[in-house]
């Protein structure tokens, strides 16, 4: 069914190919990325191929997701390596648009999101972020019209924001969450892990260990507030700076109010100049 991997940069080329597949009754899955691909991204491709006949991967470093002073200029880029990995993973189409295509001169529209985007997690520290994500992802949904879109659970708040946006705007693309892919020592895979020094990299897996231990404590009956407080102290002693380490309702991301709610533990921490995020279910 698949015949190699093609790279396109123009919107008409993208739409023509997907339209041809649709005319043949073939299904497509979208994997939006900012490049610098790792095994987590490739897992999204492989999971997409379990649902669809063709996977479309987009590579676009979205400036609207970066605030002044964040790492837009030094965000890792490796188009040649990314293309090689995607070919090996079985992607059919790679879409690499220019900035001028995604945000042409005079661009004046932004998708504004609330609900799970306004719960004082990532939005507290990066208030610009989710409107930027929602704007570019909605454009990609419109440009591709794919049947499915694959998002990693590592960015759990983002997954919930996109799911809610698609539901609210009657977007027909089905949003599929895919379990976080981890290094053998438990560290969640991320393009930003390359920023860690050797010493920091040796300490970084403690974040996942604290999440796992906290989940275990809650399952054994410890109050979420006490369990997360213990984890925060442990991380601080190990040299982490904490933005948040908290238990939230797994669906709404609001503060836990009753013992019967589904629980998700979410964390964002710093090691040196590198920000790490992770989460697990309880």
Question: What this model shows, in words?
Answer:
- Helix 3 links the parallel strand 3 (54-59) and strand 4 (93-95).
- The protein folds into 2 domains: 6-178, 3-Layer(aba) Sandwich (Rossmann fold); 191-281, Pantoate-beta-alanine ligase, C-terminal domain (Pantoate--beta-alanine Ligase, Chain: A,domain 2).
- Helix 6 crosses helix 7 and helix 9 (206-219) packs antiparallel against helix 10 (224-237).
- 38% of the residues lie in helices and 19% in strands.
- The longest helix has 16 residues, at 129-144.
- It is globular, with a radius of gyration of 19 Å.
- A 6-stranded parallel sheet has the order 1-4-3-2-5-6, with helices on both faces.
- The protein has 10 helices and 9 strands.
- The protein starts with 5 loop residues before the first strand and ends with a strand.
- The chain has helices spanning 11-23, 39-51, 79-89, 99-102, 122-125, 129-144, 156-168, 198-203, 206-219, 224-237; strands spanning 6-8, 28-33, 54-59, 93-95, 148-152, 174-178, 241-249, 263-271, 274-281.
- The chain is an alpha/beta fold.
How does the overall form come out from the CA principal axes? Answer: globular
Percent strand equals: 15-25%
Average pLDDT confidence is: 96
Radius of gyration: 19 Å
Strand count: 9
Low-confidence stretches: none
**Widest sheet: strand ordering:** 1-4-3-2-5-6
What are its keywords?
282 residues, alpha/beta, Rossmann fold, Pantoate--beta-alanine Ligase, Chain: A,domain 2, 2 domains, 19% strand
């Amino acid at each position: 069914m698949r015949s190699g991997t093609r790279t396109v940069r123009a919107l008409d080329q993208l739409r023509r190919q997907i339209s041809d597949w649709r005319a043949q009754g073939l299904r497509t899955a979208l994997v939006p990325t900012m490049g610098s691909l790792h095994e987590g991204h490739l897992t999204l491709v492989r999971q997409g191929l379990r649902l669809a006949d063709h996977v479309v991967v987009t590579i676009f470093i979205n400036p609207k997701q970066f605030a002044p002073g964040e790492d837009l200029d030094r965000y890792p880029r490796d188009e040649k390596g990314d293309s090689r990995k995607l070919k090996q993973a079985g992607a059919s189409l790679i879409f690499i648009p220019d900035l001028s295509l995604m945000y042409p001169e005079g661009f004046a529209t932004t998708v504004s999101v609330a609900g799970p985007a306004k719960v004082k997690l990532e939005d507290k520290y990066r208030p610009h972020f989710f409107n930027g994500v929602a704007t570019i992802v909605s454009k990609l949904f419109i440009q591709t019209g794919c049947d499915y879109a694959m998002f990693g659970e590592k960015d759990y708040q983002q997954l919930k924001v996109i799911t809610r946006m698609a539901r609210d705007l009657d977007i027909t693309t089905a949003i599929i969450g895919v379990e976080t892919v981890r290094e053998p020592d438990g560290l969640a895979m991320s393009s930003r892990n390359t920023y860690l020094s050797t010493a920091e990299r040796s300490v970084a897996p403690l974040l996942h260990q604290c999440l796992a231990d906290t989940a275990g404590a809650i399952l054994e009956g410890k109050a979420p507030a006490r369990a997360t407080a213990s984890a925060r102290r442990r991380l601080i002693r190990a040299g982490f700076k904490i933005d948040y380490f908290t238990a939230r309702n797994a669906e709404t991301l609001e503060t836990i109010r009753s013992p019967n709610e589904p629980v998700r533990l979410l964390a964002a921490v710093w090691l040196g100049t590198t920000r790490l995020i992770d989460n697990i279910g309880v």
